[in-house]
């Protein structure tokens, strides 16, 4: 992997979410956590926009972005569970799509009759991420709304899992013939 493809501005913006995640875990101040969630949200938008604008989209960047997203989400969820702001069932509901995406990625890579499929962000997946980030803010400023948002994230997560599964199913190839 070329060093140049790693050191693009969009990739650096994506990788900043790892540092933001560590900062979130290290801080307990609500205002700092709100700021870190806001910055992480901004970087999630900014990395893709920069990649398109500067024509510096890379395979590595397409991999780093969702990993950085999941890492930030996991850090926030674990911090909230450890701090008592989220219950275990809520954490599972928030992380459902992420866990299913990882399972789907491994399945797609390890089943011989599935052709390699480029996993790209899909609109429903972006909605899940947005709802997750909104839930993280709500935990800090409107805790009475957390259950409703967790259920929304779970419903969107199920819809995203179905959407990605159907996309994978449509894209599969068996015996050299594209199947529907």
Overview of the molecule:
By secondary structure, this protein is mostly helical. It has seven helices and two strands, in the order H-H-H-H-H-H-H-E-E. It has helices at about 5, 10-25, 30-55, 60-80, 90-110, 125-140, 145-170; strands spanning about 175, 175-180. A two-stranded antiparallel ribbon has the order 1-2. Helix 2 runs parallel beside helix 4 (about 60-80). The longest helix is centred in the C-terminal third of the chain and has 26 residues, at about 145-170. The mean pLDDT is about 85.
Question: How is the secondary structure organized here?
Answer:
Blueprint: H1 3-6, H2 9-26, H3 30-53, H4 59-82, H5 88-110, H6 123-141, H7 146-171, E1 173-174, E2 177-178
Antiparallel strand pairs: 1-2
Observed structural traits:
mainly alpha, 180 residues
Detail the poorly predicted runs.
Answer: none
Quaternary form: single chain
Class by helix and strand content?
Answer: mainly alpha
Query: What is the terminal-to-terminal distance?
Result: 35 Å
Biggest sheet details: 2 strands, antiparallel
Number of helices: 7
Q: Into which percentage range does the β-strand content fall?
A: under 5%
The main sheet orders its strands as: 1-2
- The total strand number stands at 2
- Helix and strand run: HHHHHHHEE
Give a brief description.
The protein is mostly helical and 180 residues long. The protein has helices at residues 3-6, 9-26, 30-53, 59-82, 88-110, 123-141, 146-171, and strands spanning 173-174, 177-178. A two-stranded antiparallel ribbon has the order 1-2.
